[in-house]
Amino acid sequence: MDYPSLLLMQSSEFLSPELLAELVQGRVDVVECVTETGSTNDDLKSAVQSGRHAGRCVLRTAERQNAGRGTRGRTWANANEALLFSVSMPWTASERIGGLISLAAGEGVARAAHALRIAAALKWPNDIWAAEGKAGGILCEFVRSPDGVPHLVVGIGLNLRVKAAGRTTHGWRITSLVDAGARIDGTEDRTSLLASVVAGVVDQLRRLAREGGKVVVDDWPLCDAFGDRTVAWVEADGARVEIGRIRGIDEAGFLLVEGRSGRTTLGGGAALCNPLEFGYDNAAH
């Protein structure tokens, strides 16, 4: 089997592009490794729109991003050491599974971590959870090639190490995969971990496209970080905060929660918040 094409490679001790290309063969057509860029998602979106990467599965990774973005345009804060990458691929699956795409990508990360004995999971809808905090995030976007074919671009940032403790916008601790048991001792370890995560993400996304949303729903209990945990949540308009228990996801990927006003579903734009920020001791319930 031929290795993926290495179209762009910059000298770095952070990753081994040659080893990465070898490890992702059969899943990725093109590997690009750069030292610094604005946003790997933006890079791949432009490449698809221009036709340069249309019709192929492409992995682009950067040691540093100076214009990285999170959900709803939030700035992505670079950790002391992180895996920053995006994958683009043609996407012609049913639009009805759109709400499940970020969950599938997150499940791919979690499954890869579990195989490596790293205690990481997915906090709905797009945060990688490890050591009782946020260790990464996922951003999914769509773009069309010149011939009109939709392409999915999935950007993922995974903290390997963080120097100082911090908190997210919604009050969660910022952590890292090393905090959750990852052993990262050099270039080969980082490269192997990245390749495992990319394989997990690509495989789970292709399963979703091929088999439908049941794949994500069935795998959710194995990858869910919170189970029936008590959380606070804020609706998309930010108008009110409620506290209750998580009850899983539905077939569309919406989160099922049960609060004082009964059971409801949370969809796009809603966010889970740390209940301690609202005077509720989650550990006691």
Automatic annotation (TrEMBL):
Residues 59-159 form the BPL/LPL catalytic domain. InterPro entries: aa-tRNA-synth_II/BPL/LPL, Biotin_CoA_COase_ligase, BPL_LPL_catalytic. Coiled coil: none annotated. GO terms for cellular component: cytoplasm. Transmembrane segments: none annotated. GO terms for molecular function: biotin--[biotin carboxyl-carrier protein] ligase activity. Pfam families: BPL_LplA_LipB. Keywords: Ligase. NCBIfam families: birA_ligase. This is Biotin--[acetyl-CoA-carboxylase] ligase. It comes from Sutterella megalosphaeroides. The gene is birA.
